[in-house]
Amino acid sequence: MNKIQQFIVNLYPTTKFLIVLFLALSAFITPGYIWSYLVLPICMFLAYLAGCFKEFSNLAIKALLLIVLFIFLLQAFFYPGQEILWQWGIFSVKQEGIQFALSLTSKIVAVASSLLLFFRITKVKDLVSSLEKLGLSPKVTFIFLSTLQIIPEMQKSTHVIMDAQKTRGVETEGKLMTRVKAFVPILSPLVLGSIASTEERVLTLESRAFSAKGNKTSLYQVNKTKHDLKVRILLLILFILLIVWRVLS
Amino acid sequence: MSIISIKNLTYQYPTSEEDVLRDISVEFESGKFYAVIGANGAGKTSLCNAIRGFIPHFYNGELQGDVLIEGRDIREWELGELSTKIGYVFQNPFTQISGVKDTVFDEISFGLENLGVEESEIRSRVADIIQLLEIGHLQEKNPFELSGGQKQRVALASIIVMEPEILVIDEPTSQLDPQSTEAIFSIIELMQKKGKTIILVEHKIELIAEYADYIIVMKDGKAVLQGNADDVLSNEQAIELGCALPQYALFGIEMKENGMDLGTIPLTEKKAISAVQHLLEKRRVTS
């Protein structure tokens, strides 16, 4: 891990959040759509510095492309306007629609890519730890963490159930209809099984003194460093400059 | 003085139609090893739940009679308080994971974190337990990725680290292979030597014969037979009540029926060998 990467990854979760918040807000403060679209490459650059360029880009492009394209088409064709650019039967692309679609999608791209970046460069463990420090109840953070851990577990048990149902002759592969039909015999044991195992999970938690009164300690700690303060001050200055520039221009 | 005393306990789950525990009276003394045996559905797990306070605190329903932990009524204890007094480990290794920790080390420390123990103390206590139970090779692994037997050892470690005086262990080995079973029992033996009171539900009667001081046989929600291990396991009546006897005891009973009285009913391999040697020597002298 090089120095810059370490610097970004080791920032305190709320500092990271302030960075992406600044990026998202700047998209709304600056007029036009060019800067808002630029937020995505900026986020990609930050992701590159943090050493997760590939994961971030894949996720961001996959998630955003479809939404942006869909909104663009809908708005271009159906936004009310006079200036017709292109027509085919009753459908027509209007200038106003394109304008609106540009400003709408650019904001979506900015907000979504900065949020995606946040979750790419912040470990959930760190986030939860900092939230707990802010005074969030351990019960809430438990739900947060356990959900994330249990999803892969449920995936595993889905495969087990699928195999079990296959051996009983339930067709799970093939045409769409066969797959839909296989849904019920797979989903119902999964859901019922998960509900049944919550009882034992409660017993486990109780056995580990989860409901004990008094303050809990935590082995895992995230700490603010002097870098956090620097980054926060820098962000504040940039934000003020941005607002001043917007008011004056 | 008994550490847990149960008097005329009768209980019914809110969803069940009849009583699952009927008029049970048992005294548990500190530092002894108790085994609870009986067929499936006899109420063994319910008895464990009543001792741990999950009945009535978690399952609700009405509890008749008394369950006293250190002389104090179970209804007055809070579940959180009991967790440092009574450790509870149960059958299914897969649900005995907190689900919020990435490594076995953190998983074992979860209970102590909840109790608010100082960080440095947590680290040393968890390290001690890991060494004691010989699971050092697992400590950096993700608890979800362990095998059933490893998970069960981690579950035991997570409870033992909280240093409860009483351990309630409900069929810990019923889903495990022979090697893992052996590993679990060596941990239980370790706890026995440390002077913990152990209440174990188990079907493997040979292992019970080896460790238990006192045996409670349950049937249809009743404690139909109880007494010192030697007495219960050599009692032919126990077979009629649906509990299996160790093969050495069966051997002894069979020998007696065939006119070759061993003098005692042996319970373990060692005792059986010495009893047979004794018999053979006696025969040699008389012939």
Can you describe what's shown?
Chain B: It is found in: Cell membrane. Chain B: Its main location: membrane. Chain B: Pfam families: ABC_tran. Chain B: It comes from Virgibacillus profundi. The complex is a heterodimer of chains A (249) and B (287). With 249 residues, chain A is mainly α. Chain A has helices at 3-9, 13-29, 34-50, 53-78, 95-121, 124-133, 138-167, 176-207, 226-248, and strands spanning 84-88, 91-94. Chain A has a two-stranded antiparallel ribbon. The model of chain A has no long low-confidence stretch (mean pLDDT 87). Chain B is α/β, with parallel strands linked by helices and 287 residues long. Chain B folds into two domains: 2-243, P-loop containing nucleotide triphosphate hydrolases (Rossmann fold), CATH 3.40.50.300; 246-287. Chain B has twelve helices and ten strands. Chain B has helices at 44-52, 54-57, 79-82, 104-115, 119-132, 148-160, 178-193, 205-211, 229-233, 237-240, 247-257, 269-286, and strands at 2-11, 21-29, 33-38, 63-69, 72-73, 86-89, 166-170, 197-201, 214-219, 222-228. In chain B, strands 6-7-8-3-9-10 form a six-stranded mixed β-sheet, sandwiched between helices. Chain B has a four-stranded antiparallel β-sheet with strand order 2-1-4-5, with helices on one face. The chains are: A mainly alpha (249), B alpha/beta (287). At the A-B interface, α7 and α8 of A face α3, β6, α4, α5 and α6 of B.
